Amino acid sequence: MGQGAAYLLGMAIGFSVLPYFVLYLVYVLVTRRTVAIPYLLAGMVAAVGGTFLLFLAAGAWLGEDLAKTPIPMFGGVIVAGTVISLVGKWKGKTIHRD
User: Which residue windows are transmembrane per the record (predicted)?
Assistant: First the structure.
């Protein structure tokens, strides 16, 4: 593999944490459901882990060319969106408006 695990972990953190919080804000605005902070943080760790595993697999296949492809950007967003959707369905609470 061209890149080390620490490099891929850094890429996973960079390409999944910010999209995770942006997608969470969009999720709250659209569905009117919130998630408790511990579940939100656990979901963020799951998103980083899933993105890291995706980058490990893609890095083994593409080698040094991984950073030149759109896989890091779109992979992080897709994994973060999936985790937000799952955490929101399982642990989300509806916001009540008066």
Answer: 6-27, 39-63, 69-88
